[in-house]
Every structure is written in structure tokens, then in C-alpha cells.
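Appendix C: a fully annotated inverse folding record. The material below is reproduced so that readers can follow the format used throughout the book. The structure is listed first as C-alpha cells, followed by the designed sequence.
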């Protein structure tokens, strides 16, 4: 199992120059690993790949919803209520067309237990309301880091998405959740985020490591160009080996 901690260690091992330089902190390496993983994963999801994998998505098993007026998230003035997540969500990755969300499911009887909700934009849903087209389907959208659901009777949902930020324990393991899921162990609850499984498919890990090593070496070990042909200290400016005139004339 690849963790962020193990990948930081691998980056230092693969590139010896990184392991001997104290300027390059573990935080800097971790930041590059995460950024490169996000870049590669977004490339794949934009091509409609990886959507069926379990290694990429984090599941929030029991997200509590509360009833709010629809005017909270738009300028619609009619007396209509919808459901909104009680807590703000971590940042969800975005693709070319939509959020990288594998699915949102109602898990209470009043909202239709086990029903998969359909994603929609708030503007499109407002158009449906203005046209009087109130379908039986239940929709959801993300606004201001909250999850909104069109059926105000939905009390709890299960959500699987690709989050760019760490999902905190108060969201993953709510104390008052009665959704019937397995109890979380103390070890899992207290686990350092560095030791959790890193959300990246295995076939992309090598590319992530290669990009990370390349970026760090270019950033920290680039040879600066001297401002004069003689160099500041009077030495030759270029760090590259020079060729003789005889060598040049043969080429």
C-alpha cells in the first residue's frame, strides 16, 4: 500500500541528491507529489477513465443533511425548501465537465433509501422550476463547499468523490451517525494522514515520482547564469564543458 510517507521516502531514495540537501523538506516533496498526482488523475478523468476504481475515491458513509430554503444558494424567491449538508465538504476535484464525484446516494427511508441522485447545476434546476417541470428525480449540486439535494426529505446521504483536501474525522466518522456502518477502530480514527493510503492508481505512481524528482531538481539545483561573460568571481560563466575550435570545425 502506497502512503504519502512512503512516497516521500522513495523520492529521497531514488534521487540521492534530494536526501543530502536539508533545504528540501518533506513538506516540499509531499506538495510536489500531491500536485503531480492531481495533474495526472485529472488528465485521466477528463478522458472518462478511472471512474470505476476504488483507489481514487473517498466514501463519506453518513453525511447529515438539514432542510434549508432554496433562496440560501440562489435568487429564487418562491417558498421552496431543499436539503443541504450540515457540514462543509473538503475541496472536490473538478474536471473539464463536472466535479469528480462517483456517486451520491440517499440512505434514509423518507428520501428513498439507496437511491442514486442525479447531478445538476443550480441554474439548470432553476430553469426546471420556472418551467414548472418538477420531475420525481432527486438532484444534487455543490455550492460554496456544501452539498445541496432537491428533496428536502433527505436526511442523510452516502457520497463517494475525489477530494483534493484531506477528509477530516468529523465528516468521515460522525458521532451521531446511525447508518448501520461498521464501527471505526481507534487506530484508523487516530491515523496520521501521511500513513493513510494515497489516493492514486498504481499505474500512475511511477509517473508521479518521475515528475516529482524532475521538478525538485530543476527547482533546487538549477545553475544560475552569471551576469557577465567572465562570471562574478572571474571564472568562466558557463558550467557546461566547452568545445575546442577543432571540434567545432568538424561538426
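Designed amino acids, in order:
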Amino acid at each position: 500500500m502506497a502512503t504519502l510517507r512512503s512516497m516521500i521516502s522513495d523520492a529521497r531514495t531514488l534521487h540521492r541528491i534530494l536526501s543530502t540537501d536539508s533545504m528540501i523538506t518533506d513538506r516540499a516533496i509531499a506538495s510536489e507529489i500531491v500536485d503531480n498526482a492531481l495533474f495526472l488523475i485529472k488528465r485521466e478523468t477528463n478522458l472518462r477513465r478511472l471512474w470505476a476504481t476504488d483507489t481514487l475515491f473517498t466514501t463519506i458513509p453518513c453525511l447529515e443533511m438539514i432542510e434549508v430554503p432554496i433562496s440560501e444558494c440562489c435568487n429564487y424567491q418562491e417558498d421552496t425548501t431543499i436539503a443541504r449538508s450540515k457540514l462543509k465538504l473538503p475541496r472536490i476535484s473538478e474536471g473539464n465537465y463536472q466535479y469528480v464525484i462517483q456517486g451520491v446516494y440517499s440512505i434514509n427511508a423518507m428520501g428513498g433509501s439507496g437511491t442514486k441522485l442525479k447531478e445538476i447545476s443550480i441554474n439548470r434546476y432553476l430553469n426546471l422550476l420556472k418551467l414548472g417541470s418538477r420531475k420525481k428525480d432527486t438532484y444534487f449540486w455543490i455550492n460554496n463547499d456544501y452539498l445541496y439535494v432537491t428533496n428536502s426529505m433527505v436526511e442523510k446521504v452516502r457520497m463517494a468523490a475525489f477530494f483534493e483536501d484531506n477528509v477530516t474525522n468529523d465528516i468521515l466518522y460522525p458521532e451521531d451517525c446511525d447508518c448501520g456502518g461498521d464501527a471505526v477502530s481507534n487506530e484508523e480514527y487516530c491515523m496520521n494522514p501521511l500513513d493513510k493510503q494515497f489516493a492514486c492508481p498504481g499505474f500512475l505512481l511511477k509517473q508521479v515520482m518521475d515528475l516529482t524528482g524532475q521538478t525538485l531538481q530543476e527547482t533546487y539545483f538549477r545553475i544560475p547564469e552569471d551576469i557577465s561573460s567572465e562570471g562574478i568571481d572571474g571564472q568562466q560563466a558557463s558550467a557546461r564543458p566547452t568545445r575546442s575550435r577543432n571540434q567545432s570545425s568538424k561538426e
